[in-house]
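User: Show me a protein chain along with its predicted structure.
Assistant: Here is one chain, sequence first, then structure tokens.
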Amino acid sequence: MNGVVFDFDGVLADSEPLSWHAWQETLAPHGVVIDDADVLACTGRTDSDTYLHFLERAALPSLSDVLQEVDRCLLDAFRTDLTGFGDAINTVQALAMVGVPLGVASSSSRVHLNLKMEILGLDRYFEVTVAGDEVDNGKPAPDLYSTAVELLRIDAASSVAVEDTAVGADAAAAAGLRIVIVNRMGLPTGLHPVVSEVDPDLLLLWLGRA
């Protein structure tokens, strides 16, 4: 059996700007200014990896203290400002209607992922969700996608991952999945196939179900 595993932030939810605003608000008092290079280096990675990235530049409070402050900024922003990408949400609904097994492999924490899925009304469509704080190694390691494939009980080689970053696509490829990148942020995509929006007909074709 084959299926589709989606990244969440930047693919299903327009959450990256909210996340970066929260990180900037948290780190600014410590003299950190987040630039495009930081966004490129950290987008798609776990909160702990992002923390370690900035720890190399500044003396920061503990990981737990930083993430507590990021959470304070983010959770309210999710509740008031989070929106989904219509193309991806329509695709999820279309695939679910024809019985394609669906999963999420997200670098977000479980608390964040659950809240975002609830706000966007996506809970019902996914059989499996895997969060960044539930695996040993974040993207580009394959752990998130390997876990999703195992829990979905799908064949990785005939299944598809939908990503928006090269680091996420590399993680999916390392787990044996085929990859398509929807390039919403204009970040480098490596050698992976790129589309302008998520299309259910394309995914069904890739799955051999068209």
